């Protein structure tokens, strides 16, 4: 297996409605931005990994449309889709292509275009994710009052509500901390020209004024549904060293899935996971990725993290899973400012998924943002210190999909 | 909202519908129906894994961790503990609709009521079921609370036979 | 007491339709709106010269950017490269349904364009279709700036 680095990154502006472009134009923009950043011509690209959650935008085999819009004519294209962690898996797919020795330069691109669905936000996509189980429940005479309790909670936030409550109960974290995380993310997003929800100077009090959706979440805690695309160019070691001033090396990666399909198994059966915030897959992925990257003490060796956090509770609980803070103590570290730009381990300086959620693109953006920080190209939200190691995380389903990627400024 | 907003051109659209309801039929095993029939006689049924010994409620055919078939059935208690709870915003008439129907208009909730959705681990089970918690103020709900099943007055072999849970009175 | 051999079929108990509205982008919007003037627009790549219809803002051959300045008006006449005739259609629930009249569809290379379009063919009997035939656009009487403004293509008389 050979060393692989990210040598170029490209994104489109993410917003609630990118109706000025069609899907192919939007993804094309991200890919061409990445190729330009990498100074690589499309003829030099050997393979593509692409992906989104296709149900959300209603295009069943998007790679067939995108082919000659992203320079993929005559090249192998692999479409990968793994729920919320799609972007991470797409990046891993491109990594495998180059690390295996089969290809020298690969492009990873992921996107989402929610506004192509008539229902607002992510309704259409979410509607057909759990449909089979829902109909099984209806067929077996589920009570309307029970459906109501599922909907009023589930509609906006679903399992994340339960996950947050588990975490808050066992760690002592309070709603105020969720306000703090959401405010930090939207403040950070204001410094990221590609982010969606940009609120310069957002404070926890601003978030606390928004209305309750379902305890513990307020309207201001919840991620948006964004349209947008992102892309990266990955290359083998000698090409990266020759063509890129400061490549971002992929030092370690892992993707463990746990059991389950949303909050119940197939056929609406139960699942053997009692605590939705336990996330064993995240712990296992982090252990494997750190081992591969040669990181023994993440609390000391990781300089910043990009965590997949459509909900602020997830920034805290996944930061602990990634070994960045002690068990149950991330919210205390937040109070001390350890997650801020000048803190010990800045988290989600781009604003994260909480500020920008084009589902397919989101997990790819976490890796992309770590790469930008290592390369020194994060512009207004660049961390003011040397970045030697960074960790990017992706989450999908409810406990099923996780991707963890460790990037560094050197391959060793 | 004080977010930075940007204006972009809105180009025309090509539209189409996907008639999911009219064109799709789902296949299910009879496991969930088996569970519902158990509820009719006030029995909560789970499946037992021969590998790890976990009891999963409602039953499923294969253990998610050991991947072994779970053919054996176990009846668990109708008393259990709340492992997690989420409280909805007050339900307002005309604002919250479920499958096109208004729960306040239908008399299912009173205006302004906050619905409490809980995960309950019945004694003997190693999984949660989600249901509604009634008969308690939202402020009093806590993790670890002991609860008891509330059965429908006229059970019909449907999932709604287990209506909700309520605090266990000792 | 397990009964995995039995299968239950369920359908949605209420109408369940997901609607989609794919935004077309600026080049395609220009093309569609110009149909109102009974004009068909193509775009010529400034780098390799490949002409696309409908127009697109990036060349699929050499990947150069193509702009509004590269739009070009086509004559609406072309050559029939290939064709087929359909006698049945899908009814949306898994069955075939016979058409009242067979539908002919052709792959057409418009004069001045390099790419192919697929269009219904009218005013011609399926048996009379021939590869290489000259065809031309038959416009809807009242064009509105919609894709349906092109009703079909018909053989050029004479």
Concise structural overview:
The complex is a heterotrimer of chains A (about 400), B (about 170) and C (about 160). With about 400 residues, chain A is α/β, with parallel strands linked by helices.
What would your notes on this structure say?
The complex is a heterotrimer of chains A (412), B (170) and C (158). Chain A has helices at 23-38, 54-57, 62-66, 86-99, 123-129, 131-139, 144-154, 159-171, 175-189, 204-208, 237-243, 280-293, 298-301, 312-321, 330-335, 352-355, 359-375, and strands at 4-11, 47-51, 77-79, 105-113, 212-215, 217-218, 227-236, 248-254, 304-306, 389-396, 401-408. Chain A has 412 residues and is α/β, with parallel strands linked by helices. In chain A, strand 5 (212-215) and strand 6 form a beta hairpin. Chain A is globular. In chain A, 68% of the residues are buried. With 170 residues, chain B is mainly β. Chain B has one domain. Chain B is 8% helix and 33% strand. The termini of chain B are far apart. The mean pLDDT of chain B is 91. A five-stranded antiparallel beta sheet of chain C has the order 8-7-6-9-10, with no helix packed on it. Chain C starts with 6 loop residues before the first strand and ends with a strand. Chain C has one helix and ten strands, in the order ββαββββββββ. The chains are: A alpha/beta (412), B mainly beta (170), C mainly beta (158). The interface between A and B is large, with 65 and 73 residues.
